[in-house]
Amino acid sequence: MNKTSLIDELKKECEVCQDCELGKTRTNIVFSSGDENTAKAILIGEAPGANEDLTGTPFVGKAGKFLDKLLEEVGISREKDLYIINTVKCRPPKNRVPAKAEKDACRNFLIRQIEIINPKLLIFCGNTALKSFVSNKGSFSSVRGNLLEVILNEKAYKGIAIYHPSYLMQYATKEQIEMTKDDLSQIKSIIEE
Ligand code: SF4
User: Fold this and answer.
1) pLDDT tens readout for residues 163-183
2) Are 45 and 54 in contact (CB under 8 A)?
3) Which atom number of ligand 1 is nearest to the Cα of residue 20?
């Protein structure tokens, strides 16, 4: 089976999934955005918000637009280079952080997506995504921007953490915005290797 058929099959499973409480309150599952055949990196965010729940597409609200602007500045194509997912596929009520049990329930879908895409790089967008895949590496600010090794089902992937655009929009210093552009430039170099 080709990548598109495998992804379509997985999406159908997710659309009827009720493996955690979030399935009861979602409008749509938020499966992914990007082209599985051209994506070189998978960007993993935290969880769908209200706009994402309504549209079924990740990173379409204000934070998504902010991310788009940063990607454009460094020359990464969101549509062609990135495949975007979240730690859970259904919106947590009131935009709370997803619970461990919810992330654990959804993890199998994420790992199967990662295995199908087989990216050069995993990008952990924010602390929730980072901690879901990498533990005991220190604080987010000390880990961000470093090249990491992540083992999933005995396969090693390169990984890197970047600040979440919601955080950057609300709290970041100019220095943190510049750091994020540097991180994205590093990401561009890796995916173009
Ligand atoms: S968040 Fe994931 S595990 Fe939970 S219901 Fe949605 S698709 Fe299923």
Assistant:
1) 999 999 999 899 999 999 999
2) no
3) 4
* Spatial distance between the Cα atoms of 68 and 191, rounded to a whole number of angstroms: 17
Pocket test for ligand 1, best of 11, 17, 28, 107 (most atoms within 8 A of CB): 17
Q: Which residues line ligand 1 (CB under 6 A)?
A: 14, 17-20, 22-23, 29, 88-90, 102, 105-106
**Domain residue limits, the chain:** 3-192
Which residue, among 134, 138, 164, 163, has the nearest Cα to 149 in the 3D structure?
134
Task: Read off the pTM.
Answer: 0.96
Q: Whose CA is nearest to atom 2 of ligand 1?
A: 106
Q: Which fold has domain 3-192?
A: Uracil-DNA Glycosylase, subunit E (3.40.470)
What is the rounded distance in angstroms from the CA atom of residue 103 to the CA atom of residue 107?
Answer: 6
- What CA–CA distance (Å, rounded) separates 17 from 11? 10
Dist. CA 72 → ligand 1 center (Å): 31
Dump pLDDT digits (tens) for 117-138.
999 999 999 999 999 999 877 8
